Amino acid sequence: MRPLAAAVLATALLTAAVPAAVPAESATAVAPSAPAPAVSEIADTRLDSRAVYFESYNGLVNNNAFQKNGLLTYRGYQYAAWYTGDRTAVIGRRALNQTAWQTVRLPHKLTADDSHNVISMGVSRVDGRLHLNMDSHSSGFFYVKSVAGLVDDPAGHPWDSTRFGAVQTTLDGLALTSQFTYPQFVATPEGRLQLSYRAGVSGNGRNALAEYDGTKWTNLGEWSASTGTYTSGHGSSTARNMYLHGIDYGPDGRLHAFYTWREQNNAVMCDAGGLTNHDTGYVHSSDRGRTWRNAAGTVVGTTGGADQVTVSDPGTVVDPLNPDHSLMNQESQATDSAGRPHALISYVPGRFGQCTTDYVADRTRSGRTFHLFENAAGTWRKTEIPEALNSSQRTHLAFDRYDNAYAVMPYGRIVAASSASGYTDWKTLFDGSGLDAFGEVVVDDTRLAQDGVLSFMYQRKSSGTTPSALHVIDFRLPS
């Protein structure tokens, strides 16, 4: 067992523009006997001793926190996808009560040294197929799906290449866009499978959805717009893209999406070495992603329609921030058991200066992560997590069955806060020592609800293009 951090860190609230922490009586209702957040390491297994390794955009292609899902659990089996040392795409699986992984090599090799070109997986419950989308950055994509019923009866299906169809450059004949990035699969409450993606490029792109009903894929269309004018204290921009922190269905069937905007024109920043990202926005949909509303319930966009979500839509910004603080895009979001939306965001707070000039160095030196959520009264609350980023990279959010929140930070550190406190008592539960993890990790969002285990995939540090070991580590949470 690796040592846990001994000290309980004091909660520090962001000053100036940040609201006070929510009082405990406004927190998610839990039983008085609900346990505090806790983790207990139960296993650390090796997926690959020589996974592909190269640093790109300060990340690794096998370990981007925004992958949805690079690690996935369904009906008692866990699935993982990655590129091995010779760049071949690989799918692994194991029964949850086992540590040994079975692997299948797909007939596809990574085409570029680009950490954006991740592999994402999804399950269509309507027909029991496993789907993969991979290897794209403002380009075409590669798509593979399994035979029907594979994940419904994994023990009854041998794990070999015959269980997967051909590698395609369309969704079963449906062409989406020649500038495709950020595939994220999300299952609807009815068991259909949706694919979220960006059409276009960084600074000038639109979010879109496609949907699989067990028979065919349908392109639902774009739902965010790149048009309009944004003006900061430094200058203006007339093009941008919405970067999602995620897209997830809550327990009541509502589809949630937190996001930041990235402007195309660097003139909006105080210094060209920063990031043009600004503001944290939030919208939701109660009709499976066809119509989008702000937190107050006002319609602000329609998927595939003329009126899409824009930078100027009223009531969509839930945490304002100008572009001078290197706000990170695609951080993390989750919903609690009551269906309330939560997000993690990170940036350089104003107490460290009002202008970042090198976003990697400044975030590593002074970056902080914040927990943002809408409480039962409909008020947005934000608390600073009192653990320095020490990285330019992202943190991932997850909940246990008692709605305690767990932030899995770069290098595999786990910091948590209780629902009973209103998420004000953040403390370090696991300091990541001994993992030798590169940075971001890939959390299995689907496993927690099934067996109360927090799993994440991490890759050991290396240098240059020397392959390194890829692992999955498991922690038992309160049950």
Shape: globular
Helix content: under 10%
Question: In angstroms, what is the radius of gyration?
Answer: 21 Å
Number of strands: 32
CATH architecture: 7 Propeller
Could you name the CATH homologous superfamily?
YVTN repeat-like/Quinoprotein amine dehydrogenase
Spans of 5+ residues with little confidence (pLDDT < 50)? 1-31
The largest sheet, given as strand count, sense and whether it forms a barrel, is: 5 strands, antiparallel
Q: CATH topology, which one?
A: Methylamine Dehydrogenase, Chain H
Name the quaternary structure.
Answer: single chain
Quickly count the domains.
Answer: 1
- The proportion of residues in beta strands is 35-45%
**Pairing-aware structural class of the strands and helices?**
mainly beta
Q: Please work out how many helical segments DSSP would assign.
A: 2
Topology readout:
Blueprint: E1 40-51, E2 71-74, E3 77-83, E4 88-95, E5 102-109, E6 119-124, E7 129-134, E8 142-145, E9 180-187, E10 193-201, E11 204-212, E12 217-222, E13 230-231, E14 236-237, E15 240-244, E16 248-249, E17 255-263, E18 277-285, E19 291-293, E20 299-302, E21 317-319, E22 332-335, E23 341-347, H1 359-366, E24 368-374, E25 380-384, E26 396-399, E27 405-408, E28 414-417, E29 427-430, E30 442-443, H2 448-451, E31 453-459, E32 468-476
Antiparallel strand pairs: 1-32, 2-3, 3-4, 4-5, 6-7, 7-8, 9-10, 10-11, 11-12, 13-14, 15-17, 16-17, 17-18, 18-21, 19-20, 22-23, 23-24, 24-25, 26-27, 27-28, 28-29, 30-31, 31-32
Keywords: Signal
InterPro entries: Sialidase_sf (IPR036278)
Signal peptide: 1-20
